[in-house]
Records
---
Amino acid sequence: MFDKYLRAISDENERKEILRLLRFRIAAMAVAVAALIALVVESVVFDGIIEKGGEAPMWPSYLTIALFAAGLIGYFVLRAVFWSRFCFILTREPKEGEPEELTLYRKKLRAERTEDRAAIKRYSKFAIVGLILFVVLLVAEVILYPEKEELGALSLTGLVLFAVGLVVSFICYGIYDEKKKKNKTDDSDIAAKLDEMQGREYRYSLKEDKNARSLDYLFPTPEIREKAEKYKKNYGIQLLSTVIVASMMAFCTVCVFCFGKVLEINLSGFAYPIFVTMVLILTLLASIQPLHYLSKVEKEQLKELETNPEYSKNLEIYKMYEEYSRFKGKTALFAVIASIAVSLLVAAFIPDKPWSALSVVIIVGGLLLHNKLYGEFRKSVIPLEKEIDAMKAEKAVADDEKDNGEADFSDVPRSGKEKDEGLKF
């Protein structure tokens, strides 16, 4: 889990120090999450006591809030201490005897850290602007309508803008992260060597796998791959636009029909399933056309894979991806559908409480399972990719030797007369 950071440190005592900081940071976040869950449970229990005419004690809630605040503050403090210490290690001069691979690895992590920070600053602006607009509209509503006790049109508009800004920030950073993975170099050999030097077994990481979403091996024909990459890029843009628009539409629908603004009925329990269902359906509908075009290009490439012996290994990879996508590749989609089904069931029993939203845990679990399954799948594909790379390298060397050989033979005299003249001094 922490190998990426630990392999950049040659000194064992420093590695232990960094490992402690990372573990304490996770522990602090675990305390904050546990306190937040406890706070939700307490609010449900105390609501029930109050509804029955009893008096709920407040000290457990105060204690839980204090634990949540302590865990959250501790997490951010430890995070700042970790990055301060780790960045010092990355930027200092190499110690005597440190291998060249370690210097190169640190340089790569330093550049990656700089790019990530710049990307976070660049893309967080959408969320910050949305938050500012929400605060401004909320304050304006309080000033214009001081008698209102619930959120009105202005504050709800601000909330929608903030939600959209937050979604756009996350999606933009996700796109940046995907591009970074695609363009990064393969450092697995260096990482494996450093792990061996430090007495640690090298473990595959999906996040560091630059070919995890590459089309190079599935579409080895350059002309076809260019078309596939173009359609994939357009699909990404279309999907991003759809998610943003669908989220706005779903949010407005939920505000109108689930919180008693129009129907005068509190159906907040159905807010989550309606929101997720609308986003899912609109996203799937928007995916039909681009996926159809990608399918046509895929069939064109498959025909080439089946007829060209040079692409036999690529065909094996294609069949592996085809088998994986039938069931395991749809894990995230199954998780979303299961989450909607469970949330609808909860909402049917508790329509006036938003507890159905807790089924988002199913989506989180589905995404984690998807990453695990895809990581295992990728480990089975990588040996074939390396074989293809080795074959390409051998072919490139052979072509280079052939070209050099032809150039050398062109200078050899072709007749006896030319040969004799060439021997004269």
Note: Residues 339 and 360 are 6 Å apart (CA to CA).
---
Amino acid sequence: MKRFLLQILAGFIPLYLFSAWVIMFVQPLFDGKHDELEALERVGIGLGVMVLVEALIFKFWLLPSWARSMSMRFYAGSYIPEDDPIASLASIIRADNRKDLIPELSDLVEQDPTRARAWLELASILESVKNDPQKAVEKLIRGASCVKNDQDAAMLLWRAVSLLRKTDDGKQRAEQIREDIIRRYPNTSYGQFAAQHREQTQGA
């Protein structure tokens, strides 16, 4: 949050400079001794430059930074297959239906079990390629016990809830995990969403 506020303050530096310029150099021109039309032209030019600079700052700095931050928060980061061995192997497994490589993918995830996105990749492969949603659920629960922060843990558990709710025999366990999310991670976005989901299902 502090970083976000600092970025906002820094991003509006051109606006601060424009305001100071108007007060110090343009406002005196409206004293009746100068050409007010010239003063207005200066304000227009300065305003145009300020808007252009602000647009560039938002487009090339603030918006990309916020997009990366949101990605990290809700999806635990994103991996480019060529740059990450887990994403690369997962891409090969999906493309060629290489079920024989799933144990290797699982080993890679276990080598650095704190990465939430890695557990999501593994669970996705187990569900879509191996057609084993129960195993995917077990991996998500395992991942939730390994990641470093509550937000990631709640996210992985909620993904497990989503998988379990797809089948009638998994709905009871899904509710148990949902209650666990609400109890253990009430201050996370997924904990709050789970609480809302409970209210909606009970009211239906």
Note: The chain has ten helices and no strands.
